[in-house]
Write a structure and sequence with these properties.
The complex is a heterotrimer of chains A (329), B (383) and C (394). Chain A has helices at 2-6, 8-36, 43-60, 69-104, 109-128, 130-136, 144-147, 175-197, 199-209, 211-216, 221-246, 255-269, 274-295, 300-314; strands at residues 65-68, 154-155, 158-161, 164-168, 171-174, 249-250. Chain A is mostly helical. Chain A has a single domain (2-148, 165-314), classed as ABC transporter involved in vitamin B12 uptake, BtuC, CATH 1.10.3470. In chain A, strands 1-3 form a two-stranded parallel sheet. A two-stranded antiparallel sheet of chain A has the order 2-6. A two-stranded antiparallel ribbon of chain A has the order 4-5. Chain A is globular, with a radius of gyration of 20 Å. Chain A starts with a helix and ends in a 15-residue tail after the last helix. Chain B has two domains: 46-165 and 290-352, Response regulator (Rossmann fold); 167-285 and 364-381, 3-Layer(aba) Sandwich (Rossmann fold), CATH 3.40.50.2300. In chain B, helix 4 links the parallel strand 3 (115-119) and strand 4. In chain B, helix 2 (62-82) crosses helix 11 (292-301). Chain B is α/β, with parallel strands linked by helices and 383 residues long. Chain B is elongated. In chain C, helix 4 packs parallel to helix 6 (145-163). Chain C has helices at 11-28, 30-50, 62-85, 94-110, 116-138, 145-163, 225-246, 249-259, 261-266, 271-297, 307-320, 325-341, 349-363, 372-388; strands at 195-199, 208-215. Classes of the chains: A mainly alpha (329), B alpha/beta (383), C mainly alpha (394). Chains in contact: A-B, A-C, B-C.
Amino acid sequence: MHTFTHQFFELTITGLVLGSIYALVALGYTMVYGVLQLINFAHSEVFMYGTFATAWVFVFFDQTGVNSIGGEIGFLLIALVVAMLVSGGVALLLERVAYRPLIKKNAPKLIALISAIGASFVLSEAMGLRDRIAAWFGLEDNLGNYVGNARNNYTMPVQINPKGLFTIGDYTVTDIDVITIVAALGMMFALQVFVSRTRFGRGIRAVAQDPESAALMGVNSTRVIQLTFFLGGLMAGAAATLYMLRIGSTRNDAGFIFGVKAFTAAVMGGIGNLRGALLGGLILGVAENWGSAFLGSQWKDVVAFVLLVVILLIRPQGLLGESLGKARA
Amino acid sequence: MTGTKKTARVFALAGVAALALSACGTTGGNNSANAGSGNSSGSGSCGHYEIAYMGALTGPNGALGQNMLGGINTALSEYNAKHADCKVTVKTFDSQGDPDQASKLALNVVNDTKVVGLIGPGFSGESKATGKTFFSAGLPSISPSATEVDLTEQGWTTWHRVIGNDSAQGAADAKYLTGKKVFVVDDASVYGKGLADVVRKGLKPVGNDEVQTGQTDFSATVTKIKGSGADAVFYGGYYAESGLLVKQLRQAGWKGLFMSGDGSEDPAFVKVAGSQAAEGAVLSAPAAPAPADFGTKYASANPGKTAGLYSTQSYDAANIFLAGIDAGDTSLSKMNDFVTNYSGTGVSGPIKFDSKGDIQTSTIYAYSVKNGQLDTANPAPIK
Amino acid sequence: MNRYYDFAPSGLSRGWSAFRGWLGGLLDNKPTRVALIAVGIVFVYALPLLNLPVITTSGVDFGGVMFDAAAYALIAVGLNIVIGYAGLLDLGYVGFYAIGAYTTGILTTYHFHWPFLLALPVAIAVTMLSGLILGAPTLRVRGDYLAIVTLGFGEIIRLVIVNTHWLGAAQGIDNIPAPPNIGPNAPGQGGGLFQVPHLSWGTFPNIIDVGHKTPFLKFGPIDAIPFYWMIVTAFFIVIIADILVKNSRVGRAWEATREDEDAAELMGVPTFKFKLLAFALGAAVGGLSGAFYATRNGFISPATFLLLLSELFVAAVIVGGAGNRWGAAFGGVLVAYLPDRFRSFSDWRMLVFGLALMALAIWRPQGIFPPRRTRRALAAEAQIEELEGEAVDV
């Protein structure tokens, strides 16, 4: 208990940092749900591919040793772009292979969940077997730095050390903390503007509200669905780079737990609602840290889920309600 | 949906289920895979013996199992070079480290009449799930890596291990940390919590925390450690988490001694933590460094691979069974007597089992990270 | 919102419906039907003894695999009540499986020393009660929110076990006793009332494998087949109960609730009560399966009851055909059996399994054996399509 009062600021700020990464991933769940009323269970793997893409960029540019953010800022930006594109690409592939055939057939909603679970296994296992897949093409030696020991942790070759910037309470806020929160908020703001101000965004909102009318008004729903998956993928890719900046290590099964948390955040805030995802992510991140301090880290996930249940019982539509599309079930 | 024309036919569902099943049974060709297809290089009068290996060979923990299989292969290739007329082969049962798969595979192991002994199971969970089966069948087993204390308290007289258990290691670790203000963290796994609890008993920790395997963000734990004023941390668990924990501790400016057990004693620990954060960390293991020529032998028996954690123990375990075969003790009960009374010196140290199947003397070594590398050649024995 | 896959009458499906017609005709004849059902039941019991080529798993004990397959089939039938009948997406069903297994473990060995057969009904009752306790708050949440809330509860149950010393924590519970043996049990005799030989498909005259026998009703750690017989028996009992409940007022209330909750409520159906009942009955079946798992394995630990298992259970029900108890059971068998059948793919087996799930979802979105009402709807849709020349939603 004394830990909590003493280190309130440290727990809260590190919780907000982690929460903003949750929130970025949660956007992918929330947008797909808003448009299709589907839980995209494979979104966690989209995130996982982004973490690998980030590390690969640093391997490619042969960045080793220890450095500060300032020294790596150029490579970080490249990694951010690459990770966003890789995750966006994986999300598009997912839509094409696992969802579109089902949407075309007007299949029951639940079956899409099974397709997504299957796709999630395939994506995760393919990453865990990437050394063997490279061996098919005889590339396992050339690509050894990228695919070797595929089942083990894959780490960033460079160590990026944080630098303290200023102090709040007892806690020295680092540059990594600031960059993570600012970048996440910036991404979300950009997405919000895109969805609410542009022509493409209008299409997304139209399909979310009423697909039939949208189709009658000439909105190409396939295109809109693709765009939704791609945008969700971009956000997951950005989250992946921020995650790797902080954690520095990933694995082919790293997405699973993270995905469950992000999905929880999306539901907490009100699924289908972009601002809800942000609020849900931040609350979840902070609640986990506070819960860990009060009860011990082993109860962290229990705290997160109990909080979810309590919120849904008090506000069944989530904290900020559903706004991208209204539930039609 | 009401008022549609009733076109669906009514038929008894049980019949359909049976039919579907029998259809499965009759459609395929004759490519039935044969379970007992061990290679038949054994010949002559000696009979064909197999040593079984059960543990993870694929899946998330596959790398550890491959280390063990490599050790077994090394012993077998030496033996078979000397006994060209009477070769012994290894038959693998890949459990992926999962107790549920292991319990099914154990039935295959005990129904295979060529198997004279089992090396494994690799992990403690699968050992618990299968021990009764092996004991009932009278099959002698030697685990190179399962260290949970309870395993030898079950009365399974066929169960042995060539590695010091967690209680030996934890006591040594506690001794090593004597005089420090220690904060103990574990990963709530059978192994990690078991080891950490022994350490907790051996000293008075200034704080405790428990994380989850697969967790990557340890900010709350880091905050607690800093708040407790500890100058040492002991972590019970595997390198994937311990590496990240020490990294986040150092990033938060904590400067004390970081110690963990054999689950973290792997070069990958340094990779996950980063060489700067890992520097000075101490990792204990109930195993002496392998003799210099073991690496060469291993590489020639397993081309392209290097020995790793548990390779030496597996090599020793295989050699015990091979010595039993040489002595002619090839029935299960005779082999079990042979193993139980075995005494010798392997590459991992002197081997003699106590009445419960634990190794009698086990020295725990402290390996440390120096100059950005895990120094596997010069550990200090903890006395 | 009912969306169904409209499938064009291809040559294959025409052949299939002709076959079904023939089968239906055969089954209209009562004595034939009874005989076929009897043969089917005997076949199911005998399956692990037959060592049939192709379907028998190589490299892993077929009796053990069949036990798992039957356990999953039982779970799928239970979960089918929740998903298929009541239309509630439960992603935390593994929690009930865990509660059943742990109640058994605690009563038979960890804190008490009850015999298994006494612990079994208590395990079922405890699981059912926990279904009520967990269902009461969660079922007030509607639609897709239920998925994440149940997922959360499934995970909470596992974490509570991991972190509670009284429940064995991460170490788990071992030495869970098997059910009592029936018949003589002298050591070295093999025991059991009598011994059933296996078949062997090697050389023709030796078709009966005399060296390999399973003792009848002796539950030991080296043969899983008696456990398989036990769980198959429980499976058939649950199926009969399931048929009775589904055909009663309760079954109709579930159907009404699933199709339109508001309308059902208006018609005087207390939908919440019936949803809760479905949740509790489903939970009880999950607990039953968990109890059998505990006694067969002899050892349980929280590492078994992962979220992933919940996903597989849901996959079993939906792939098999939600709403059709036989379809769900078949899905359960598939989900347990395929990864072991694919063992020769070793490292690739989960990848292959994932591909299989995707392929099944895409090629047969209504499940392998959809319930009758879905088949009716499909037929109606095809008919309307023929009349209007265009696909419509029903």
